[in-house]
Amino acid sequence: MPTPKYDPETYHPQQSYAAKQLSRYDMQVAGVVVYVVAMAMLFVVALVLMLFWNETATQAHAQSRAAATAGQQNKLAELTQPLPQPEMRAEDVNDDIAQLHAREDLLLANYTRVDGKPGKVRIPVGRAMALMAQRGLPTAAAMPSASLMTGDSKLAVAQPLTSGFAPTENEQAQARAQR
């Protein structure tokens, strides 16, 4: 490659620098055209692949959807079958409830033996209430007391605090008036 000769009349440093700058930024049309064509081809190939993939996916989805729909229709048919109607006569509608109440009334109003427990008897509700009023509520057995420590004394209740029943407001007013 020949070396350029220096000619001081035609040499201008700024002009040659500017020329070098312009050549550095000049576009090469052939490179741009090749790039655009390659991108267009890539786009077309991607579009064809997407369409093909969409077609196969749609077919597979339609087949699975058809199978699922058939299964759902079978299940839906099973669920929507009418239930068999119970055979009831008009006069039997309340018989079961009436029989239940009659058995309960017999148990509550009469003495009956408890199955499997010798000596155990159910008593009528009215009699049980009369016995409770006469005898009072059952009480728990007294707890054995621990031995007293030195200096302790045994507590004793001289008189019950209440009769077991709370006086009404009128009874309280009468007691205040008598004082």
- Pairing-aware structural class of the strands and helices? mainly alpha
**What fraction of residues sit in β-strands?**
under 5%
Largest sheet: 2 strands, antiparallel
Q: Could you give the count of β-strands?
A: 2
- Straight-line N-to-C gap: 142 Å
Number of helices: 5
- Average predicted local confidence, pLDDT: 76
CA radius of gyration is: 54 Å
Low-confidence stretches: none
Range of helix content: 55-70%
- Overall outline: elongated
* Widest beta sheet: strand line-up: 1-2
Helix-strand pattern, N to C? HHHEEHH
Folded structure, characterized:
The protein starts with 12 loop residues before the first helix and ends with a helix. The chain has 179 residues and is mainly α. The longest helix is centred in the N-terminal third of the chain and has 51 residues, at 29-79. The protein has a two-stranded antiparallel ribbon with strand order 1-2. Helix content is 56%, strand content 2%. Among the domains are: 13-78; 95-137, no CATH class. It is built from five helices and two strands. The protein has helices at residues 13-25, 29-79, 95-109, 125-135, 169-178, and strands at residues 112-113, 121-122. The mean pLDDT is 76.
